[in-house]
Design a protein that fits this description.
The structure is a homodimer.
Chain A lengths: L13 H16 L6 H8 L3 H7 L3 H21 L9 H14 L5 H4 L2 H9 L4 H28 L8 H22 L3 H17 L15
The structure holds a DNA duplex.
DNA sequence: TACTACATACCGACCGACCGGTATGTATGT
DNA sequence: ACATACATACCGGTCGGTCGGTATGTAGTA
């Protein structure tokens, strides 16, 4: 009987290791293409451990989305872009921060919940809702700074802070898709650059069009 | 032997019907979650017909991406946004056209190749490349108008036409993700509105920030 | 301290359903 | 007659999920 007396290393954290494996493997292969065995192997646990912690594969999907929401919330909450006193500077620092963390391998910088949303939006409402909560919850953390910047500068905008916050997430998600299409993270950063230029323009910073011959036209 | 003498309706177009089924079903369920049997049932053909026309499921994925590229090329080539004499008007008319065709059910307006890219970018290079060719091939059709608009207006830009064309696709793809997250196509249109505002700003059209008290500041 | 009772965490063999793909046969047009 | 375009049956393998069992830790009791 091949019962290994040597128990698994770090007993008790199988759940976390599965969630971390899900975070990385699903970003590489997608949710449907990732098997439970894939996750167990990547996490170094057995199938029994998997179904001890998660009732179904879908339940793991929900848990992975929630884990993503928690960990990214902590990451952004502790990021330095909150430092500036000027709210607009905070918004621009946020965008710069987002741009800065794009790089390396695709599975390292792309968004788990964006990936899962795309796949399961029509077939697994529970996962989709958990993903949506993560995306829009994060967007909501931008809203206050955007609105404060708008009010402070007296911008009489046709757009709302809520809408612009959502748009930033759309641009990021779209940039990730282009990056995946070519395997080049530059394409994601490129779209963030356009987004930064857009936001600066909305707030009247120096992005007015310049003619090559004259600045008046 | 339950061999139905009644042959399938419209013999000879099984391939096209499979491609159309793939276009719609994959947009709903994703590529990996769509089985060959799903496609056959949706197309009203048998598994034999499927493997007669496509060597593997992946080969269908490539063919579906190419079919998507062909049909959308035809759609955009025949669209009315090419009419204006002014190249910038054509660009803005394109964006308006894109906005106008967003609506209804998710699987009716979202992008097949964007969806597939997200899923298979790391595991099926052939499909990914076919998707990338569709996305960037379409972006390239915008490049001429954008560059013409830039040259005509003498804009001394920090961005390239190629980059802006790619960004339009990123915004659309990202908008689709947000729309899928909530089931509401308004979110996709909302991001296109931001994109339109951005492009207008790049070309000096009336989107300068307005303070609520005065237009000078 | 020693023993019991019990919950939690985990193991891995196993199951039935389903998957992509194949083998083989047949209807139809030329 | 022959090639093309299908249909049907089926295979080997993989999938998500189940289940009986076993370590391990903890609380209670005496």
């Amino acid at each position: 009987m091949p019962r290994p007396t040597k128990q698994s290393p770090e007993r008790g954290d199988a759940r976390t290791r599965l969630l971390e494996a899900a975070r990385d493997v699903i970003r590489q292969k997608g949710f449907a293409a990732t098997s439970v065995d894939d996750l167990c192997q990547s996490a170094g646990v057995t199938k029994g451990a998997f179904f001890h912690h998660f009732k179904t594969k879908d339940a793991l999907g929900v848990a992975a989305a929630n884990y993503w929401a928690e960990t990214t919330s902590a990451l952004f909450a502790g990021a330095p872009y909150h430092k500036p006193d000027d709210p607009l500077d905070r918004v621009l620092a946020y965008l710069d921060f987002r741009k800065g963390i794009i790089g390396g391998e695709t599975f390292e910088y792309t968004c788990l919940v964006g990936t899962m949303t795309q796949e399961v939006h029509d077939s697994a409402p529970a996962i989709r809702d958990a993903c949506a909560a993560s995306i829009f919850g994060h967007a909501a953390t931008l809203e206050a700074d955007i609105e404060a910047a708008r009010a402070q500068r007296g911008i009489d905008a046709e757009w709302t802070a809520e809408s612009l916050a959502r748009h930033t997430q759309a641009v990021l998600q779209g940039g990730f898709i282009l990056a995946k299409a070519t395997g080049d993270s530059d394409l994601a950063r490129e779209s963030v650059d356009h987004l930064i230029r857009y936001v600066r323009g909305l707030f009247g910073l120096d992005v007015e069009p310049q003619t090559s011959t004259t600045r008046e036209n």
